[in-house]
Design brief:
The protein is an alpha+beta fold. The chain has one domain: 4-Layer Sandwich (Glutamine Phosphoribosylpyrophosphate, subunit 1, domain 1), CATH 3.60.20. 30% of the residues lie in helices and 23% in strands. It is built from 9 helices and 14 strands. Helix 2 runs antiparallel to helix 3. The chain starts with 7 loop residues before the first strand and ends with a strand. The protein binds glycine.
Length: 324
């Protein structure tokens, strides 16, 4: 996908992206595949997902294929293989998946030594009557399903972790947001029937206390969807998303009639409210409704934090509104 094919627009212009209808599906701007990454990543992540959709006409497969790209990329320091480790130098992954029909969910948390956490979460959803597996149980479940045990700590991530350890001092606070980067990816999709799917996957807060679980594997926090309404996902400081039930709130607001854009802004305002308006971290929400309208909002003006989507085969990106 060439750079010029991107549309860089303010969030308010998302509504203007509606394309002249040729069929019922087109009128509703579906199928659509959305991710919480912008220009730098969008083609890399969304194109394989879109190709999977075209080949298989299965939006859950498409969402998973897109998320797997980041999970397998050693250059991405915030998701899957190559993710920054916990304070003991061990990479621990969190992921969740939801499928709109039958409102199915699956999740893994604190998963070690397995590369594609979201695919393990999908197996939890499809092959068990449980919703979340954690730690060693999640790892053994993945091994039983044929996943390989591998070291997820790349040399680059190990060096970053060692530099962090070298610079620790006695006044450090466990969990200072500015010292502990987070990164995550949400991938949301609506198929041509209007069925909604989503995945959130991450290596979580860098240098976290072993066992810390973020919002990504928690249904309603880092991911939520309602097949009658649409889907939402969150990235950024997971603790804040958990304590506001962030993605659930965004989807419920869409249910009450807000657009995806308005609902994402509402989610950010709620986080501001519970923090008395003072935040030194970022949270970003993305949302899509069943008609293929997209919205995004965040707390801080992070330059590279567009969200992007493929609709009618065309790749587009929007910059999230900044809510202060
Ligand atoms: N949002 C990712 C995390 O906090 O773990």
């Amino acid at each position: 996908m060439k750079r010029r094919n991107f549309i860089r627009s303010g969030a308010l212009s998302v509504a203007a992206l509606t394309i002249a209808p040729h069929s019922q599906a087109r009128e509703r701007n579906i199928p659509i595949l959305v991710c919480s990454r912008g220009e730098e990543w969008a083609a890399k992540v969304l194109q394989p997902g879109w190709q999977t959709w075209l080949n298989k006409k299965n939006m859950l497969d498409a969402v998973e294929a897109a998320a797997n790209v980041v999970e397998l990329d050693p250059e991405d320091a915030s998701v899957g293989y190559g993710g920054l480790p916990n304070e003991e130098g061990v990479v621990e992954l969190d992921a969740s998946v939801m499928a709109g029909p039958l409102h199915r969910c699956g999740a893994v948390a604190g998963l070690r030594n397995i590369k594609r956490a979201c695919s393990v979460a999908r197996l939890v959803m499809e092959r068990t009557n449980h919703i979340m597996l954690v730690g060693d149980g999640a790892r053994r479940f993945a091994l039983a399903h044929g996943f390989k045990e591998e070291d997820l700590l790349t040399d680059k991530a190990r060096e970053t972790w060692l530099r962090w350890k070298e610079n620790l001092n006695k006044d450090d606070f466990w969990g200072a947001p500015e010292a502990q980067p987070t990164g995550t990816i949400n991938v949301l999709g609506v198929d041509d029937r209007g069925d909604v799917y989503g995945i959130t996957t991450t290596s979580g807060l860098a240098f976290k206390i072993p066992g810390r679980i973020g919002d990504s594997p928690i249904i309603g926090a880092g991911l939520y969807l309602d097949n009658d309404i649409g889907a939402a996902g969150a990235t950024g400081r997971g603790e804040e998303v958990i304590r506001t039930c962030g993605s659930y709130l965004v989807v419920e607001k869409m249910k009450q009639g807000l657009s995806p854009q308005q609902a994402c802004e509402f989610g950010c305002r709620r986080i501001l409210e519970v923090n008395d308006g003072k935040v030194n971290f970022n949270v970003k929400f993305i949302a899509v409704n069943k008609n293929g309208e997209v919205g995004s909002a965040q707390l801080q003006d992070r330059k590279k934090s567009e969200c992007s989507f493929i609709m009618h085969g065309g790749l587009r990106s929007i910059f999230p509104a900044v809510v202060k």
